[in-house]
Known about the structure:
Blueprint: H1 9-18, H2 32-62, H3 75-86, H4 95-111, H5 113-119, H6 133-150, H7 152-163, H8 179-190, H9 199-225, H10 237-267, H11 282-293, H12 302-327
Helix pairs in contact: 2-4, 2-12, 4-6, 4-7, 5-6, 6-9, 9-10, 10-11, 10-12
Amino acid sequence: KNATFLLPLHVRRSRSRNLPVSAHTDMDSSNVWKGLAFGGIASCVAEVVTYPIDFTKTRLQLQGEGGAQRQYKGVVDAVIKIGRNEGLLAMYGGLSPALLRQATYGSMRYGFYTPIKSALGVKPGTKSHEVPLWKKITAGCGAGAISSFICNPCDLIKVRMQADGMASNGSHAPRYRGLAHAFKTIASEEGFFALWKGVGPTCGRATVLAASELASYDEIKAQFQNPDNFLPCLEGFALHTTTAVGAGFISALCSSPFDVVKSRVMNQPFDVNGKGLKYTSMVDCFRKSVAAEGPFCLWKGFWPNFGRIGPRVTVIFVVMEQLRNSFD
């Protein structure tokens, strides 16, 4: 058994077709409700584990807007200064709206992926490597756009709570005392629909992120398991982890520009009419940011972003796979 790798390639391929594997060899759950539940639980677990990285990433993205002086030299410097000025627990600021967002957005993003693929003509039981890549990308785009639009208020509040203390280095009281207070304050002072400020870049980022993350995980895993490939891999923890890390890097690379713009649009000051004082739209933010700081500003905070997305994607898919194997 341990010397299987010594066998001729055609023998290994033949055996791989007949080896017992998990009941789940793709990303699909047996029904929508289980997909929503598994996605929500896995997303919340991953959010708690990676939140301090997300907090640091947001601070790095917001600094230097419009050519202003940078507050942090890098990830380590940011952690040291945040800890010294605001306390390390400040790095969990905005966790409550983040968890609410993951319980809803994360749930819908992963839960809607399979139904949208079905709507595109993918029949139940179809092997993942037989599904065209464009259908996986389209399903990821749809799942990301729908779920992010619905859950934009949670994302906006999370970004604002993460930015609290940045301007004053922790010397002033935060704008919001918690999730409920933030909802109430924003709705009363800026109007109910102010909770959907930045929905354009949010949907843009979520669409790119979901398409790259879900489609790449689905495709990479399918290719690893394809019996016609060089050395097909069996279902298991090693396969899930390897596939998730690859999907995490691809999604971080593709979504970083939208992530930077989303954070800046959401955190900018607004006038009494709710109009942004720095940027009028997602495109305007892209243009002004690149003009003032150069194109690479769109990848500010990339490594902490990947440092969060890589582990987050790994945790999410490993937890989801375990949930599906145990309860589906």
